[in-house]
Design brief:
Number of strands: 0
Order of helices and strands: HHHHHHHHHHHHHHHH
Structural class: mainly alpha
Radius of gyration: 21 Å
Strand content: under 5%
Number of helices: 16
Helix content: over 70%
Shape: globular
């Protein structure tokens, strides 16, 4: 890459890191904060589901606007949405206004993230694109790791203090982008784009006939189960083991570090050795065993270690599923990856919603739900593999 390309990539990385990190700051504090306003598992699940739902619904429109109005504007507007969401979160205690802030945040994320990756595509050649995307993705992963760790320690200065810091950090990204980020200066063929625009429902209907439909279903079911787990883990630690925001921050940060290390250094090696299909079977099984063991964890440390196993498995499963779908998609890469994101988002919406409601009935029910869904995922995977082998034998 040229010096100018590297400069632009660094600016995008800073924006992505700040945006994701500022949101991550609130994760360890959320259980204690919700308890302080007399809310429980249902609210915790909806906080995640509403954000993911707004992002899913608004993504097709945001993608269209990114092409029509330029990457820079959408990046700035997206950061403004995230900033406004954080300020509302800091300023109010009404649960309905908090839900409204999550809608605004989800729309902001829908504007921001596709625009950043489109910007990368504009300023890189085809051969450079994978490296550019991986650098921005690394900044995203780093934000996921660093944000919760900072939030846990900021909680010592007051329960709402991390929300204020998150809003101010996000605001700094807005100012930074206004003065430093320049448009990618790539002409967009908006007319041809408009002609190809289809509703999300129509795209999902088309995906049913694709050869990678079963991997998409696996993605949805797995995302459902895993988000059911992740959405209530903070509340569970607080209620079951009297964990502090620092304890929750340490767990979230540690599992994030494990995910980054595994994705950078492990996934490619084990896929080359065992193949995508075998890796799916192995680590869906490992994740399911982790869910089962979590039901019997007697203290914070044991639950922590079990969670590391679960997150290690998921950090392997997600890129493996992405690769499998990509290989089966042929020349439909854009459509396939869009559907992969859509199916994952549906799981991200439904999982936390149902898990939060179940948590308020009994705190172990979300983990039982995750275990059942991972078992169903394994059965679907094995049946699909058996059918594929039979089809190959007949051909």
């Amino acid at each position: 890459m040229s010096a100018e390309q590297r400069k632009k990539i660094i600016i995008l990385m800073i924006n992505m890191f700040i945006a994701i990190g500022s949101f991550g700051i609130i994760i360890p504090i959320l259980p204690a904060y919700l308890a302080s306003i007399n809310q429980g598992g249902t609210a915790a699940g909806l906080m995640i589901a509403i954000f993911a739902g707004a992002q899913l619904i608004f993504s097709p429109i945001a993608g269209k606007w990114t092409d029509q109005f330029g990457r820079r504007k959408m990046i700035i507007y997206g950061l403004v949405g995230l900033t406004l969401s954080m300020f509302i979160f800091y300023a109010v205690n009404s649960i309905w206004l908090l839900y409204a802030s999550r809608i605004i945040g989800g729309i902001g994320a829908a504007l921001l993230i596709p625009a950043i990756f489109a910007y990368v595509a504009d300023i890189t050649t085809f051969d450079q694109r994978a490296k550019g995307n991986s650098l921005v993705s690394a900044a995203m992963s780093l934000g996921i790791v660093v944000g919760p760790g900072i939030g846990g320690f900021l909680a010592d200065f007051g329960l709402k203090f991390p929300f204020l810091i998150s809003a101010l950090v996000s605001l700094s990204a807005v100012v930074f982008s206004i003065f430093v980020l320049k448009e990618s200066e790539t002409a967009q063929d908006t007319q041809s784009m408009d002609a190809k625009t289809e509703t999300m429902l129509r795209k999902i209907t088309l995906s049913v006939k694709k050869p990678y439909f079963i991997p998409l279903i696996i993605t949805l079911v797995m995302s459902f189960g895993l988000m059911a787990y992740e959405s209530v883990i903070g509340l569970y630690l607080d209620n079951q083991f009297n964990s502090t925001p620092k304890d929750i921050a340490v767990m979230v940060t540690a599992t994030g570090i494990v995910s980054v290390i595994v994705q950078l250094f492990v996934v490619d090696r084990i896929v080359q050795r065992f193949g995508e299909v075998n890796v799916l079977n192995i680590f869906i099984s490992v994740a399911a065993i982790g869910f089962l063991l979590s039901l019997f964890a007697s203290n914070y440390l044991i639950f922590f270690l079990i969670s590391l196993i679960i997150f290690l498995s998921t950090s392997i499963l997600r890129p493996v599923l992405n690769t499998l779908i990509s290989k089966m998609a042929g020349n439909e890469q854009g459509f396939a990856m869009g559907m992969n994101n859509a199916y994952m988002s549906i799981g991200n919406v439904l999982g936390p919603t149902l898990a939060g409601m179940m948590y308020d009935v009994h705190i172990t029910y979300p983990f039982m739900l995750g275990l059942i869904l991972l078992f169903i995922t394994l059965m679907i995977t094995m049946a699909w593999q058996k059918r594929s082998l039979h089809a190959k034998a007949l051909s």
